């Protein structure tokens, strides 16, 4: 069979399995959402705590960067004895992968704020906390949001690999399809799972682009 022969059978499969794929897509979306919320809280905290301290920031970036060097199969597998199978090891592993872009952009964004602006705010009597919340964070926000978008796109793809620990989402049909590759059913499963993952990634990136525009101070 040629690629065209395989692809011609996909529309009928999608029509037949549409509801199941939508349910898996919702599970995938929920895992990504929980992961990005947790990763954003943790990475923002790390960035805010260390952006003024070069050695501290370097340590944060080194540690979070190390997580990305661990093969996903290995990292998911390492958490099985601790958390078992399912959503918990999936979310824990994905949070570790999502930290670096957000932490790096938080540190970079805060450091890129013009010192003259911060000094002006200080001269107006704003406390350090007020300067951070009312001046530095709003100015750094577009850079931080860019990191969140990068992490989100990355996590959408990696979340599919969580099927090896029985994680929720679209990884199930992809792995089932790969195990039956060379057959029409296998192609249908792998192609449809991949298609829905890519679609989710595009939709989420579009949503985050809108959120970034709406939450960025006017004039930036």
Give the key terms.
single chain; 220 residues; mainly alpha; 10 helices; 0% strand
Cα distance, first to last residue?
54 Å
> What count of helical segments does DSSP give?
10
Instruction: Please tell me what the overall shape is.
Output: elongated
Q: Averaged pLDDT, please?
A: 91
Secondary-structure element order, N to C:
HHHHHHHHHH
* Percent range of helical residues: over 70%
The overall strand count is 0
Contiguous uncertain segments of 5+ residues? none
The largest pleated sheet is described as: none
Question: What is the structural class?
Answer: mainly alpha
Content of β-strand? under 5%
What is the gyration radius calculated from CA atoms? 21 Å
In summary, what is this structure?
The chain has 10 helices and no strands. It has helices spanning 3-8, 10-50, 54-69, 72-78, 80-83, 87-111, 115-123, 128-158, 171-179, 184-215.
Report what the structure shows.
It is a single chain. The chain has 220 residues and is an all-alpha fold. Helix 6 crosses helix 8. The protein starts with a helix and ends in a 5-residue tail after the last helix. It has 10 helices and no strands.
Helix and strand topology:
Blueprint lengths: L2 H6 L1 H41 L3 H16 L2 H7 L1 H4 L3 H25 L3 H9 L4 H31 L12 H9 L4 H32 L5
């Amino acid at each position: 069979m040629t690629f065209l022969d395989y692809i011609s059978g996909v529309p009928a499969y999608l029509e037949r399995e549409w509801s199941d794929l939508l349910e898996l897509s919702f599970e995938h979306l929920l895992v990504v959402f929980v992961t990005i919320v947790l990763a954003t809280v943790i990475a923002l905290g790390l960035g805010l705590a260390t952006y003024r301290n070069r050695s501290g920031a370097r340590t944060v970036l080194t540690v979070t960067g190390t997580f990305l060097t661990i093969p996903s199969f290995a990292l998911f597998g390492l958490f099985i004895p601790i958390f078992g199978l399912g959503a918990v090891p999936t979310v824990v592993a994905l949070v570790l992968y999502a930290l670096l872009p957000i932490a790096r952009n938080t540190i970079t964004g805060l450091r890129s704020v013009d010192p003259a602006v911060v000094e002006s705010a200080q001269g107006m009597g704003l406390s350090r906390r007020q300067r951070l919340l009312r001046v530095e964070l709003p100015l750094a926000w577009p850079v931080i949001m860019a990191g969140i978008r990068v992490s989100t796109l990355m996590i959408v793809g990696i979340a599919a690999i969580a099927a090896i620990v029985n994680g929720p989402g679209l990884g199930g049909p992809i792995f089932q399809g790969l195990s039956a590759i060379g057959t029409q059913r296998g192609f249908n499963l792998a192609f449809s799972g991949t298609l829905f993952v890519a679609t989710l990634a595009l939709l989420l990136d579009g949503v985050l682009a809108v959120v970034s525009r709406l939450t960025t101070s006017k004039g930036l």
